[in-house]
Amino acid sequence: MKSETNENAKKKIFPVDKTKAIPLLLTGAVIALDQVIKAFIANNWPQNTLIKDVFNNGLFWIYHVRNKNIAFSIGRGLPEIIKPVLFVVLPLLVLGFLVWYYLRSDEFTPVQRWAVAGILGGGIGNIIDRIFRPDGVVDFISIKFYGLFGFERWPTFNIADTSVVICCILLFVTILFGSSKKMEKAAS
Fold first, then answer.
1. Which of 17, 106, 129, 161 is labelled catalytic?
2. What are the structural domain ranges in the chain?
């Protein structure tokens, strides 16, 4: 009886269990790292500035640019009035649904929980820029791509983009080739 009361008290104080809460530390870490680096770059160098050629061979640059669109400058031709809806409101709704599903579902594996947390961190990091930086999202990582896929340089990106891409790939691979908790329960 006493341990049952303690469990109920714990749930009231912290209603999300540790397996769901701990990966969300990654969300906060990605947001913090992304925003600190973006602020440092935005406050110290003007836009369209090559800050550092890291290996002195053009392979990896720290290059300050702004992007008012989304990945690969998608949305460049859209009317400015539509962009806030497509680039802020819609992503907020998607991220809100993802948080809701993440907290409600017990079907994610631990790796999938960490992947979702990284996606949330990156998504929120870029939305912060879209809301608070009128010149656009701060991008600063530029990699030489040697003409592959028609790119001499890969489109410039940031920590938030990196987190979203890596974690989406991880989530996709674990869903495609891994097993969900639902499948594990069905097999036993």
1. 161
2. 26-187
